[in-house]
Structures are given as C-alpha cells and as structure tokens.
C-alpha cells in the first residue's frame, strides 16, 4: 500500500478504536506508520481523511450486511419467515459491527457541524431504505418507488430504534421471532 492507503487504513482503525471525534492526527499517523505531514499532503486535513475513512467503512459495512442478510434465506420462505431470519442477522451484525454503529450514532450529534458527513449519511440512508425494502419485502429496486420509500423508511426506523436499544442493553435485544410477535400484536 502507499501512504494514502495506509492513512485510510489507519484512520479506519482509529474510527473503530477511538471514534470519530476523539481521534487525533497523531493517532492516525501512528496507526498508519505514516508522517503527520502526509495527512495534509494527501487529504488537506485530518477531517477530510476521517470523512473519507468513514465513508469507506460505511460502504464496506453496507456491502457486508447486504451479503449477510441475503445469505441462507430459503427460496420457499414465507414473508414472515424471511423477516425473522433477516432480523436475526441484523441483530447479529450489531455485535460484529458495534464500533461502526457507535461512530455513526456519535456523528448524528454532530451533523449540523459537519455538513459533508450529513450529506453522506443522507445518501446512505436512501440507499439503505432501498436495500431494506428489497431484503424484507422482495421489492426489486426501481419497480415500485412509493412502496420502496414507505417500507424502506419503516424498516430503517425500526433498525435505528432497535440498534439504539441494543447499544444500550444488548441482552434485551429482540430476536426475529420476538419482533414478528410484536408486529402481530400491534397489527392485531
């Protein structure tokens, strides 16, 4: 790898270990084995480097989650069975990707001060909604935009809400079966 790639890898490690706001330029230089001056040369600022590292990490996480969620779903599964299996995988991903989730929640409190991060998160939410509508409802992207928007937004809200609860108290996280039971009670 070159200095630029080393810096990105080091910044991603710092995101996981220290979070977005607690990472210093010196932390990144140490983690990457590259000089402090290289940050300015390649990225203009620590913030620009951290933003790019965050965007790459979010894309990698999204790709991993999409692959994880679509794996091993029975072709003949009912919509509820598909939902339960996918939701169980979502909850499993919370533990595996906890540092990235914590960083994203950290950034929510700063979005008014970091507009480029806000823009990236908005794009990410839109993509996630489409992916969630496809995953949970089987809606091929672009075939029914309003249904994608409505169901994807609902699943995104559920995911964020359950995730925030899980981050605080992972032992009380609901399984796919429990979420399905709760939906049945509400829809009653």
3D structure, described in words:
- With 188 residues, this protein is mainly α.
- It is 77% helix and 0% strand.
- The protein is built from nine helices and no strands.
- It has helices at 3-18, 25-32, 36-43, 46-70, 79-96, 98-108, 115-137, 145-168, 176-187.
- The longest helix is centred in the N-terminal third of the chain and has 25 residues, at 46-70.
- The mean pLDDT is 86.
Q: Major β-sheet, in short?
A: none
Strand content: under 5%
Percentage of helical residues?
Answer: over 70%
Low-confidence segments: none
Helical run tally:
9
User: What's the quaternary structure here?
Assistant: single chain
Number of strands: 0
The backbone outline, from C-alpha atoms, is: elongated
Structural classification: mainly alpha
H-E order: HHHHHHHHH
Rounded to an integer, what's the Rg over CA atoms? 19 Å
Rounded to the nearest angstrom, the distance between the terminal CA atoms is: 57 Å
Average pLDDT for all residues? 86
Short description:
The chain has 188 residues and is mainly α.
Keyphrases for this structure?
mainly alpha; 0% strand; 188 residues; single chain
């Amino acid at each position: 790898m070159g200095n630029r790639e080393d810096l990105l890898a080091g910044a991603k490690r710092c995101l996981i270990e220290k979070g977005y706001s607690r990472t210093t330029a010196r932390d990144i230089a140490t983690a990457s084995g590259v000089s402090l001056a290289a940050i300015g040369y390649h990225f203009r600022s620590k913030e620009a480097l951290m933003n790019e590292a965050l965007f790459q990490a979010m894309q990698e996480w999204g790709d991993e989650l999409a692959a994880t969620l679509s794996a091993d779903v029975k072709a003949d599964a009912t919509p509820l069975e598909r939902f339960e299996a996918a939701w169980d995988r979502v909850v499993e991903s919370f533990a595996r990707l906890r540092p990235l989730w914590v960083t994203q929640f950290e950034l929510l409190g700063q979005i008014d001060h970091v507009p480029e991060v806000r823009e990236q998160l908005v794009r990410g939410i839109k993509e996630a909604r489409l992916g969630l509508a496809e995953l949970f409802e089987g809606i091929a992207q672009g075939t029914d935009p309003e249904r994608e928007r409505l169901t994807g937004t609902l699943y995104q809200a559920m995911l964020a809400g359950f995730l925030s609860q899980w981050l605080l108290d992972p032992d009380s996280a609901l399984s796919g079966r429990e979420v399905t039971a709760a939906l049945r009670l509400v829809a009653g």
